[in-house]
Amino acid sequence: MDFSITNISKNDIFLGHDWLKYHNPKINWNKAMLEFSRCPGACQKESAVDSPEEEVLDVMEWDEMESGDRLLVVQISKEELQLRAYQSKAEQLAEQRTGGHNKLPAYCLPYKKVFEKKTFDQLP
Prior knowledge:
- The protein is mostly helical.
- It contains four helices and two strands.
- The protein has a two-stranded antiparallel ribbon with strand order 1-2.
- A hairpin with a 4-residue loop joins strand 1 and strand 2 (about 35).
């Protein structure tokens, strides 16, 4: 997984439409959480913490962050990784009915534009 650091103006995070489409995370807006339970097989790699010699990153080698920069790091535990293949029957049926395209909840409709592909493909 790639991580980038940049100033994205007043936004807290920027996730591209292609990234969201590829990883297809479950998003709990109330808890501000992403759950990577529907990632494709290519994402299901053994993590460095599973290896006998845990990888240690030297923070002193990193470039200094500028004011307004943010760093996003996602660590997936082995238990979560094993659950990625699970999909409930209700999810399968809902996906068949909608063709994989879910409608936005009513409370999100005023912000519909930010969920469109054209908007996701543009940097702020």
